[in-house]
Amino acid sequence: MNNYKYNPIQEVEDDGLTIPEVGEWGKEKYNLLGYYAELFTKSMRDKWGNLVYIDLFASSGYCKIKSTGKIIKSGALIALSTPIHFDKYIFCEEDKDLIASLEKRIERDFPKERAKSVFIQGSCNEKIDEIIKNIPRYSVNNTVLNFCFIDPFNLGIHFNTVARLGAYQLDMLMLIATGMAATRNEKKYQSPSNDTISLFLNDSSWRSDFSGDADMKNQSFTQFLSKRYKSNMIKLGYTQVADFHDVRYKHNNKNVLLYHLAFFSKNPLGNKFWNIIRKQYAGDQQALF
Questions:
Q1: Does residue 250 sit within a domain?
Q2: Domain annotation covers residue 112
Q3: Which of 22, 48, 192, 207 has the fewest CB atoms within 10 Å of its CB?
Q4: Are 177 and 82 in contact (CB under 8 A)?
């Protein structure tokens, strides 16, 4: 692994198209995504007929680091930049400006891959049928392995959406906004009129489970969500769920949790790849404030 020359974090120039801002800590997420996508394509290229990349929150392909003003490639363009390419790309993004900018960047920088790319504008929860329709049909003579990146800024990804994709041969790397959203909005989510967590877990009775679970008495809301999400994924057939990867930043000499990166694969080899990547390329964040 130390001999890899590929670097997912690539600084780029402002091209006048839409560029959202992200925190410095986003670089760790993109680093792990890029190295996993590289190892995935390199190792699986000769074993599967089709390798498919699916991005449910594809954004614009570029992002600006708030603290430095530097512009780097984000998820979608990182996946397109691997030395060995995927056979198909499915990009879903709710924001019209973001997905329009992504399409223009791919047309300009990856013209060959543009012909293999599908752009779906709208919420992935509402467009899941269209996303699935674009996954190549699996057969004995046309095998398909998918890698899905799920990168929301909140807990707006419905578990039913994840479960629909989980029916396929598919590895997932998912951001779970435990610190950014769950911890900050726990009181709001506890309101009976708020269905965010019910949709996130596909469980409308989660409130009584959280307050009544003896195992949860000394655990936080974040720990409850993580435990329940793992349980849900195991039921989908992802039986070897790795511990979620913490992404933190240092603030006033404290390590503050921002979010978790959760990886899911039904194949032991996928989990082995993830553990290699995480040990090699996940690093402590520097003090940001």
A1: yes
A2: yes
A3: 192
A4: no
Flag whether 5 is in a domain.
no
> pLDDT tens for residues 153-191?
999 999 999 999 999 999 999 999 988 777 788 999 999
Residue 71, C-beta contacts closer than 8 angstroms, at least 6 positions apart:
11, 12, 13, 14, 19, 62, 63, 64, 65
Q: What is the pTM of this model?
A: 0.92
CA separation for the pair 265, 219 (Å, rounded): 27
Distance between CA atoms of residues 71 and 73, nearest Å: 7
Here the tokens at position 116 are 């293999």
Residue 248's DSSP bridge partners are 257
3-state helix, strand, coil in the chain (%, to 5): 40, 20, 40
Which residues on neighbouring strands pair with residue 22, listed in sequence order?
65
| CATH number for the domain harbouring residue 100 | 3.40.50.150
